[in-house]
Amino acid sequence: MIITKQKNFEDLLESSGKGPVFIIGCNECATLCHTGGEEEVLAMKDAFEKKQVQVSGWVVLEPACHLNNDKRLLRSFKEELSRSKKILVLACGNGVQTITEIFDDKDIISGTDTLFLGEIKRANEFDKRCNMCGECLLDLFGGLCPVSRCPKSMLNGPCGGAKEGKCEINPDRDCVWDQIYNRLKQSGKLHLLDEIQKPKDWSKSLEMRREI
Amino acid sequence: MSFRSNLEKVLSDGKFAVTAEIGPPKGSDPNKITKKAEMLKGYADAFNITDNQTAVVRMSSIAGCYILLKMDMEPIMQMTCRDRNRIALQSDVLGASALGIKNLLCLTGDHQSFGNHPSAKGVFDIDSMQLIQIVKNMRDKGTFQNGDEILAGRPNVFIGAAANPFADPFELRVDRLRKKIKAGADFIQTQSVYNIDKFNNWIDEVRSNGLDKKVHILAGVTPLKSLKMAERMKFHVPGVDIPDTIYNRMKNANEPKKEGYEIALETVREVKNINGIRGVHITALFWEDIIPSLVEEADIRTMH
To answer: Could you give the ipTM of this predicted complex?
Structure first.
């Protein structure tokens, strides 16, 4: 899932000017992150109105990153949208840009910062799991990814800084190399670590388009 | 037999080697390096010039090394993977060799979040293991990382790497050393030793695996200059292991600076007698002027 956090309200207020603003949410990742579901969209609407910013309407797209579906759903808001100078999108960076693609005459405001691709550990707690590097190496590391979970993306880790299983960058975070070691040891596959992993082919992470 | 560097010759001759670290200045004044270098000349076989250590911007390692070369002193150029990708690193290996730099120390590098530009983008295109292997292939096979042939002059350098006997998981520390040897490390400089017992456990295992015969290991020694430094090293610097006994000695000392020096002297004497240790690497952070007396008193003065 794409993990987002809402931008500072004061900054959004400044970007929105006096409005009118149309607010768009997303029913998938941003809903689960509590950054752009119906609840958050309505809360944003209230907060804007309290500050005398006119809100022309709102919708939660299904999901915001689906171009054709967005066009279809937004058709029912033609009138509200025609009155809006600005559109605030409470979705990930992808969702925001899909909206940009639809409207060429409106200011699009990104309401969130997109953080990472991660899992929901429990309500309101998210952990990074993938860098979308284009060439998955999980088989080599017991199903745990050092590219996304080691701050130095070390393929031949661990570095010399881990202490009691915690990362040197942030003692609240587990060292993924410690986890890799323990998992491979448990499954009798420590020999996988004998191999020197070659430099990664980062060109695989440069894919910009895929058609099936 | 011809040697790539003086350091390689000293180690190959079976003499106890001394290397010392010189931190480049936060500025472009070359005198900051020449002053330290003049003071240390003759007290070590080669001198590490750090590469923006702890991710703080300083004069580049390659420039610092060149200043030493002009003073007829032998540098060890430290290279980290934090700030340069494989293109820049290989280019600097060629440039360093062209300038006459004969020793390289390959490191992954401290994460940028520890330094004075925490908003910088860390590169980490490759890691230290891969850098060692790349430099070895450049030297021995005459190829770049992509397989292309080096057309005009292979970098004939003595390849160094770091080892931390104290980091977790401890069980992996010797395996990691083995891997660095396999990648191409000729010499190793260890993390600073304060916990002699743990260091002995590590070197015992290194010896029982015969790894001390495959690589020259230099034990790291960093004199503690003050109680504050001991506290910082014990509680805040990743990868450093200061046992309570050492910490308490610093805490209870009337003159912590003198105590720190004594601890360092004892450490040098102890590691000197450890089978499998071929030298010491002295990192006297902001206290380089202590190195001459430490070397004299420990009776490891080189002049090889």
So the answer is: 0.94
- Rounded to whole angstroms, how far apart are CA atoms B262 and A200? 46
**CB A199 to CB B130 under 8 A?**
yes
SS3 B216: strand
Give the domain extent around A74. Answer: 2-115
B169 and A194: CB-CB below 8 Å? no
Asked if residue A25 and residue A101 are part of one domain, the reply reads: yes
User: Which residue out of B90, B108, B195, B241 would a mutagenesis test of the A interface target, given it has the greatest number of A Cβ atoms within 10 Å?
Assistant: B108
- Using CA atoms, how far apart are residues B150 and B146, in angstroms rounded to an integer? 11
Domains along the sequence of chain B with CATH: 6-297 (3.20.20.220)
Distance CA A31, CA A14 (A): 24
CATH code at A91? 3.40.50.2300
Collect all residues of chain A within an 8 Å Cβ-Cβ radius of residue B193: none
**A105 shares its domain with A7:** yes
* CB within 8 Å: B169 and A156: no
* Residue A108 included in any domain: yes
Q: How far is A21 from chain B (nearest CA, A)?
A: 33
Residues from chain A contacting residue B106 (CB–CB below 8 Å) = none
Q: List the single residue in B125, B163, B175 with the smallest CB-CB distance to A193.
A: B175
Query: Does A94 lie in the same domain as A146?
Result: no
Distances (CA, A) of A106 to A68, A72, A78, B177, B248: 19, 18, 13, 59, 66
| A124 within domain boundaries | no
- Per the structure, the count of domains in chain A is 2
User: Which of B110, B172, B242 would you mutate first to test chain A, the one with the most A CBs within 10 A?
Assistant: B172
Residue A122 lies in a domain: no
Return the residue matching tokens 């020793």.
B103
pLDDT digits (tens, 9 = 90+) for B4-39: 999 999 999 999 999 999 999 999 999 999 999 999
Q: Report the percentage of chain B scoring pLDDT > 70.
A: 99
Average pLDDT over residues A121-140: 95
Any domain includes A8: yes
Q: How far apart are CA A81 and CA A55, in angstroms?
A: 10
Tell whether A88 and A16 lie within a shared domain.
yes
Condensed to tens digits (0 to 9), the pLDDT of residues B237-258 reads: 888 999 999 999 999 999 999 9
